[in-house]
Amino acid sequence: MLNKSIIEDVLNEALSTGGDFSEIFIEDRFTNNMTLHSGKLETSLSGRDFGIGVRVFKGLQSAYAYTTDFSREGLIKTAKNAAQAIKGNKIIQLSPFEPRTFNNQHPIEIIPQDVEKTRKLSVMKNAYDIAKSYHSSISQVNVRYSDEEQNVLIANSEGTFVEDTRIRSRMLIQAIATRDNQMETGYYGPGALQGFEFIENLNLEHYAREAARIAVTMLDASPCPSGKFPVIIDNEFGGVIFHEACGHGLEATAVAKKHSVFADRLGQQVAPEIVTYIDDGTLKNEWGSINIDDEGELSRKNVLIENGILKGYLIDKFNSRRMGMESTGSGRRESFRFAPTSRMTNTYIAPGKSSPEEIISNTENGIYTKYMGGGQVNTTTGDYNFAVMEAYEVKNGKLGKPLKGATLIGNGPKTLQKVDMVGNNLGHGAGMCGSQSGSIPVNVGQPMIRVSEITVGGSNE
């Protein structure tokens, strides 16, 4: 992507004012996005984004600069801009590059760039037809298709030199059901670190019908009651609560500055013994997976909480200095426009021993949340509130009527302590996570779990 001699010159220039570490991140990204609105192609956009970021450290100082000018002069200027934040004389020399190779754990069969748009549109129309024909109350279906190919090269003053190609594909299906003046929405958005084969092999009957079923079901839902209840949270995207309310608190971005309730608690019990919490970027072809992070470190499986005991954090290269701990392959960024920091990949609660049927039958009076919606969290305190897209009452160990307007309100670490049943049906859900290094693909996951008590905010109706 760039001549090695130019890369060496850039890294040397970044060290010229006394830095003790320099890094270059080179990115060449191709994207395709198509939107189908009410059965008609509304937008079709393709793009290419090329840029280079340069970073320099000195102790606990860090500076970052980026450019889209890949001439030697433009790159040297960018390195000088980063170096200006560091005051002093050059103190270290570059280590010889040691090109790193790895086994690609995420095979690609069909490069999306090679697929005609008509072929992509055909799958989108199939999803539309399935969702639209589900029920007469489905008034509108929107389908969005996206793919990207991200080529990166990462080199640093310690001798790291590594390249990777990441290819992702995703389809998002939104169904809207209407009756009289009432409107309800259902949504599903599967994605993978995979080529177009993922899209062609999607079980559209499942995903499109589920989006439509949620919308139609909620038309007949009753207002959700307010109060404190046992809450059953289903698998897959149900894991978004612990991603937001606990996962971010285990990132070094917060831990290193003591801005997390989990800071200085390694070895302590932070959850019941039935809870094991894992971040694993090596899961084959999963949406949040990576071969290497955006600092050139190999991805790995990081056990964060094991049988209730806090075992580790997600650590990037800069915060490893603050914490005196090694990087965990967790340095990620949206693009060359962002400096990396510690981020999640595929984060999930490991499966337990209870079946979903056992969890429901052992709940006398509570709320069952099948699909979660959006939410907000204060990462410093762990306080959260999340909308629920589809919920049901639980009475005498059986599912009852659907409920609408449910909101879960609580504190992540405290909610974690109240998990009293963990199912055996682990599932993952694809999403995008925003933080200080931009928006990145992540999976959230869990089996069905039960929390002994969560405050539920109900409908205003």
TrEMBL record:
Domain Metalloprotease TldD/E N-terminal: from-to ranges: 23-85
This protein's GO CC annotations: cytosol
UniProt-listed SUPFAM superfamilies: Putative modulator of DNA gyrase, PmbA/TldD
UniProt-listed Gene3D superfamilies: PmbA/TldD superfamily
MF terms in GO: metallopeptidase activity
Record's signal peptide: none
Pfam families linked: PmbA_TldD_1st, PmbA_TldD_2nd, PmbA_TldD_3rd
Annotated GO biological process: proteolysis
Family according to the record: Belongs to the peptidase U62 family.
Keyword Cytoplasm: no
Record's keyword terms, sorted: Hydrolase, Metalloprotease, Protease
Gene source species: Heyndrickxia oleronia
Protein name: Peptidase C69
Keyword match Protease: yes
Stretches assigned to the Metalloprotease TldD/E C-terminal domain: 226-458
Residue ranges constituting the Metalloprotease TldD/E central domain according to the UniProt record: 112-219
Taxonomic classification: Bacteria, Bacillati, Bacillota, Bacilli, Bacillales
